[in-house]
Each structure stands twice: as structure tokens, then as C-alpha cells.
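Revision sheet: C-alpha cells.
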Amino acid sequence: MAAHQSQPTRAWYQASISEFVSADPDAVVGRLTTNGQFDSDIAQVAAWQRQIVLLKEWLDGIDGAIFLEFNIPRMGRRIDAVVLTGSIVLVIEFKVGASEFGVSAIEQVWDYALDLKNFHEGSHGVRIVPMLVATEASTSPVPSLQFAEDGVAKPLLLHCGRVAQLIGELSAAFSDVPLEMHAWSTSSYRPTPTIVEAARALYAQHSVEAIARHDAGAKT
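Predicted:
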């Protein structure tokens, strides 16, 4: 048996962008509700409805794939939307009803992007752009794409009016080798070599007893 097999997709909803744009919004919400089981309260459904309307508008005419409620197992959280277009991955976090870009929200979407980069095999070698959308913001900073050495960009803070143009520009700029929806979504959990090396270096400085006590949450 191979050491690293593909895993089932971690998204509650996934489709090509063209399928998503043409889909009935209620059908998309239905899929999310079904896959979310008991997590779907009235506020969550209303947030999904708002996000779906916006995403359908922004992605009209864009090639690629979309994943809604993409699970991040290590963090116990889900990304609102992940968009593959061309060779780039867009990590989109919505703050529905928010008019400002809070520090915790910025850190949240950045953490999601870094988790994909470091723990999702299909994302190891691609560029990732985290995007934070405050749906009620009237203004936002002019987008400035700044990639770190690992290929993860500094989060972009966006009001709704900026997003469609930005996605179009990114799709055109990174249209070289399109990512394949199924292969990306089912790729396995595999920490990058740098993460593994860092963990080994950390543990090498501690005794087995100390590590065990830390993992068990030992108290003095």
C-alpha cells in the first residue's frame, strides 16, 4: 500500500466555476446544509446565501473550480471559499455584515493560507492568495500583491466592489498551468519538508520524557 494515498475531498460543496455560476443558489445552500448536518443554523444559512450571491457575481466568466466550506483538520476550522483559477489558489474568508477588517480576521485567513501551503500536498508548489472580504465595508486598501518566499501572499483586504476585477486580473496573470479540481481537492495531508525538519529540530532539543509531559499537558 502506498504511503500517501489520495483522500476524499474535504469540501462540503465543490464544482467547476461554470457549474457553480449556473447553479440554483438554493441548491448550493441545500448541498451545504446536507453536508453540514447539524451545524447549519439560521444565521449560517443566511451567511451562505449572501456569500453565494457575491461569488456567483464575481466568478462569472472565470475558468476554474470552487470549494465551499473547505475543512482544515489541523485547525478544526473551515475556509469559507477556495477558488482555483489558472495556477493560483484563492483563499476567501467572508465577514458578512462587517464594515471593518479586524486583526483576528486577518490572522485567520492568513493562517488558512499557510495551513494549505504547509499541510496540503496539492498546495505545496503553488501560489496562494488569502483574501478577506468585509461585506459592508465601503472602502478598502488598494490591493498590493506581495508574495513571501513560500509563495503565500500577504492577505488582501477587500470591499465587495473590488473583488471581481481582482479575481479577473489574477486569473489572467496566472493562466499558465491550470490546477485540476479533483487532483487538488483529494491530495493528501503531507507536511512540507521544512515543517518536518523544523519539528525534528525542535524535538531533538528535548528528552522523550519532556515531550511526553508536554503532550499530556502535565502540570507541576
